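Troubleshooting: if your tokenizer reports a length mismatch, compare your output against this known-good record of 93 residues.
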Amino acid sequence: MAECTKHQLTGPGNYMTSKSDFFAAAQRLIGTKQFERLAICGYTPHDYCREIAQLHFIGTLQDTNTQADDLLIIQTIAKNLWVGDGTTGFVEE
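Known-good structure output:
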């Protein structure tokens, strides 16, 4: 679980994160090369959430020691986008 010192706790199981933390987590989960290719294509946080969800479903995410924390970051933003108010909810850095 993500540390409360790094991500602000906003409710049971909900964390807020910065834009740079989100993109760093996405890059670790899908790999630098694929992340950069998708960025060139203009991927948005919504697109990265969808891509990571698909890769997670088929079991092809990068295996890292931060995977659980990274997935929590991505899941929080995806929840904001898909079932929340439709915004990322990024916090200021």
